[in-house]
Amino acid sequence: MTTSDRPDVEERDFRRPPGPPGPPPVSNVWVYNGRAYDLSEWISKHPGGEFFIGRTKNRDITSIIGSYHKDPEKIGKMIERYALDRRALPEDIHPKNNAPDFLFKEGFDSWRDTPKYRFDDKNDLLHKVKARLKEPAMAAKLKRMDRLFDVVAVLMVIAYFAVQGLRLSVPAWMPLPLFVFLMVVLRSSLAGFGHYAIHRAQKGMNKIYTNAFDLNYVALSFVTADGHALLHHPHTQSEVDIKKNVFTMMMRVPRLYRVPIHTLHKFGHTVTGMTIRLLDVCRLTSKVGVKDMYGTWGGALPHFIGSFGVRFLLVAELVLFVLAGDFWAWALQFVITLWISTFLVVASHDFDVDTEDLHTDTEDWGVNQLEQAYDLTVVGNRYVDCFLSAGLSPHRVHHVLPYQRSGFANIATEEVVREEAAKFGVEWLPPKSFFGDRFPALVKTYLMSRSHEAEERDWGFVREHCSPTALKTCAVYTVQGFTGIGTV
């Protein structure tokens, strides 16, 4: 449903007034259901953590409130105390959601292009599902599943350090093939735990746990939590969903060079780049003001401690393997983990299809989520796949209920969502195989397609790989990895 489809929004509201040169100014305004609010005082009070409020300044948070809360109507009434008693204006909304410009298509404007959904229809799919989950027996079951999920995660942390320790101390007891296999599995699985930690309230120790998302070498959870939880989930497959563009910079590299150059780029991220980027975030936080982003330094420190701690851990592992004369064992698990995890990021949506080709005529947010996502299977067991897929195995349920705390809870909820979806005419398709279905398609899309420059200029194979600009792109992209620029 676009803004223009809503009768309460006039055409004149589309016209963003010309502003001063430079970046758009940031003001203390949040937009909810077309009205303006100042939630500055609520940042440090938010039960879900300061981060989610501080980061959404100058955005339309209607879909975020509607999708991430069990009772959004109650939240809507609560924030009325912070209302500015006026309708929202285009200048209240940052045109690029305070995110990097390159993640959006040319001409994107958040005021105009953010999808609008209603969450006050008690007969929509989301309300029907939530009503069944409130039943005491189901609520108790979900809590048990969350605890079991966390117990499994703790056991995997122990195994993670045990596997590396055994390889470093007694290599004969941990042969190279077994070591690589176990590290790829454990890194992906722990990243799956980190994925769900990002969706939990950003309070206390959970601010540290979210950084497990970084153990697969792909991203920096400290900054991608925003693009994933706040822009991808509420606005899936729309122009606001920046997750579909996270590898835009990699696609500038000529296809034959893409794997080695991107691998070097991410090696640079691991060694120095992400730490440099974290320091930039520290400077930005200090410049913008801790109060506006976290409420207090006490709210900010766990996020920083966790992020720097995981970056130190990844570098320390590399150093230990180098000193032990076992660098190639580390390198092999690094490369395989990196590329499998890279494709997992984009495997559960049709990001390889143009947004314009993904037509949906529903105004029901829950139905839209089911139509724009699908589940993955790796070995066929849902509880194992929940971790092997980095948390994406019960993926459709996860998109309808992004506030649930674990993949096990999503598995327990699947029957409810499937039964209610059937009443809305939604076909529940079987999960897609990661290795048998999605992996080949993603290799074709992300590794075998021409570079963006070759596509735009209609270059042939030789010129794509041998032109001075192509070689310069490879060199710059490699260096950017070590300085913390590019990808996610």
UniProtKB/TrEMBL annotation:
GO terms for biological process: long-chain fatty acid biosynthetic process; unsaturated fatty acid biosynthetic process. Keywords: Membrane, Transmembrane, Transmembrane helix. GO terms for cellular component: membrane. Pfam families: Cyt-b5, FA_desaturase. The chain crosses the membrane at residues 148-166, 178-198, 301-321, 327-347. GO terms for molecular function: oxidoreductase activity, acting on paired donors, with oxidation of a pair of donors resulting in the reduction of molecular oxygen to two molecules of water. Residues 1-16 have a biased composition (Basic and acidic residues). Residues 1-27 are annotated as: Disordered. InterPro entries: Cyt_B5-like_heme/steroid-bd (IPR001199), Cyt_B5-like_heme/steroid_sf (IPR036400), FA_desaturase_dom (IPR005804), Fatty_acid_desaturase (IPR012171). Residues 31-88 form the Cytochrome b5 heme-binding domain. Residues 17-26 have a biased composition (Pro residues). PANTHER family: DELTA(5) FATTY ACID DESATURASE C-RELATED, FATTY ACID DESATURASE 2. This is Fatty acid desaturase.
